[in-house]
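Q: Hi! First time doing this. I have a protein sequence and I read that you can turn it into a structure. Is that right? Here it is:
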Amino acid sequence: RGKTKCKACNGKRLRMEANYIKIGGATITDLVEMPIDKLTIFFKQLELNEYDNQIADRLLKEINNRLSFLANVGLDYLSLTRNATTLSGGEAQRTKIASFLTKGNTQNKILFIFDEPTNGLDVLTARSVTDYLLELKEQQKTVILSTHILSVVEKLCDRVGIIINGKLKVSDSMDNVMKESNNDLEELFFKLIEEEELGGLE
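A: Yes, that's right. Below is the predicted 3D structure, encoded as structure tokens:
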């Protein structure tokens, strides 16, 4: 199905009147089109008079908190106008983590499933994502995590399943798995791979 850009708003999806109001010299259209890193700087440097600051104080804290979460999970290059359907799988997963945690949801009956959430990230961003996953765990949420990063497994998981060539080789508590592997998950992992390869030669 084709799309046509609205000539009245030039594709901004806002009424013309919405841009009559400015904050810090910027319209709402200017703000949502900024990448998150620049938008974060804008709000940190925003100066308001005493009256406006009292009105906006709670709102600004919420805005800065949400922008901080998005930046910390490595999404500071996105703008708020970015269509969710254009996000990669990893980007979508990280926006969901940030969105959930900033809402302060206290419901426990929620299941999260993440597929390689730290894959392809730099060390600092991967560490931030891992910390947020740990926060979900500490909130007593159920998290199922598929990953090849053993350090992430050791930090986050209460129970471990190791699958080699589509076969479930290990399914046990983290404590038992660590005892079985003499506290060396990597060695256990490669041992299982070797056993599987040797078994295939028989």
